[in-house]
Amino acid sequence: MEPRLEVGGLTRRFGGREVVRDVSFAIAAGQVSCLLGPSGCGKSTTLRLIAGVDLPDGGTIRVDGRPMVEGAVRVPPEKRGIGLMFQDFALFPHLTVAQNVGFGLPKGTPGRAERVADLLERVGMTRHAGKHPHELSGGEQQRVALARALAPRPRIMLMDEPFSGLDDRLRDDIRDETLAVLKAEGTAVLLVTHEPTEAMRMADEILLMRDGRIVQAGAPYTIYNNPVDLRAAAFFSDLNVIRGRVEGALTETAFGPFLVPGVPDGGEVDIAIRPQHLKIDFDRAGKGPLPTPSHGDAARGVVERARFMGSESLVEFRMDFDGSVLRAKVPWVFLPKPGTPLWLMFRRDRCFVFPREGQPRVA
Q1: In the listed set 230, 249, 270, which residue is the last one of a domain according to the structure?
Q2: Which residue range or ranges hold the ABC transporter domain (predicted)?
Q3: Is residue 362 one of the residues assigned to a domain?
Q4: Long-range contacts of 179-186 (CB under 8 A, 24+ apart)
């Protein structure tokens, strides 16, 4: 099936600096893709290039196979069939809710009133049709902005941090409602955000962006569990990082030796473990040291601090092996006193091994 949106080799320069570098991806009808990355990585610029409010220095943009940007072709924004939603909603203050939703439909459009009424019902705003934006809450304004953007039936919806201005208590509900409406319309969606949890919750595919480039693309489960490098892993969660030097394809750690094929002797590696995967070995609590701790699968640490975080506890340990600090997340309440020695362990398939940045990737 032909992609609804297809972007190839998109590049944009400002003052000689490439802020978007050879970006390529495709989105199908009804698919939600998310451009995820830190501020300044090129996400919003990519969105503006696709919308047509900025022009690329290179690359192609196609909608349903039709070129929007290709060679000498430059289709203006209003003829691309693309809807836009931004974090400030941009509702017209002098128009009612119904008038705002109908703004994108020229007067005389067949079924205009019915389309407005249908969208207001879908977003739960029918009883507010006669109100003005200043009479609405932030969540209600978000619903109106969504209905207005959908009114002309865009084939593609571009969304730039659309939920960042909402109260945390409303955000999840509004996101889910928005996603349901967009899916029902069969709209291809490109969402820009810097929040990994938002991307994981909404996206069918995540496009992880850094320094103007897409460094990894995949389903949320895949990109979370198979990050391309240490920075990609750290973007999705806190990490414990154990640093080691390779000798004979092995690196020694407090948790025993790790096999690291493909890294030459003397090379350095980072072993990353998420705090929730670092477990406390309660069966060994209070017992003496292992006979050969460097060759076991458990390591001793001394509690430095423990804090209750609501649904879990965060415990920090100073490790006997090298004096490094590791953090473990423990379900519910676990607050051992500082100075308490405990044994830690983790499953090898729950960690990531990366060569230190600038060195070849571990096979």
Answers
A1: 230
A2: 5-236
A3: no
A4: 179/32, 181/122, 181/123, 181/146, 181/150, 182/32, 182/150, 182/157, 183/30, 183/32, 184/122, 185/150, 185/153, 186/29, 186/30
- Domain range spanning residue 317? 237-355
End-to-end CA distance of the chain: 34
Identify the DSSP state of 324: -
DSSP state letters, 127-189: GGTT--GGGS-HHHHHHHHHHHHHTT--SEEEEESTTTTS-HHHHHHHHHHHHHHHHHHT-EE
CATH code of the domain in which 94 resides: 3.40.50.300
Residue 222 vs residues 37, 38, 67, 225: alpha-carbon distances, Å: 17, 20, 31, 5
Is there a domain that residue 270 lies in?
yes
Tokens matching residue 39 = 């501020």
Region for residue 153 given its phi and psi (left: phi exceeds 0; alpha: psi -120 to 50; beta: otherwise) = left
Identify the residue whose tokens are 């593609």.
156
Which strands form 279-280's sheet, in the order they lie side by side? 279-280, 341-345, 298-308, 312-319, 325-331
Tens digits of residue pLDDT in 295-352: 347 899 999 999 999 999 999 999 998 899 999 999 999 999 999 999 999 988 889 9
| Two tokens, residue 342 | 């405990």
Supply the pTM of this predicted model.
0.86
> In the chain, how many domains are there?
2
Burial of 15 (0-12, 13-18, 19+ CB in 10 A): exposed
Query: For residue 169, which amino acid is it?
Result: R
Same domain for 212 and 329? Answer: no
d(CA 205, CA 9): 19
The reported pLDDT for the residue numbered 294 is 38
Among the candidates 191, 213, 230, a domain finishes at 230
Q: List phi, psi (to 5°) of 361.
A: -70, 145
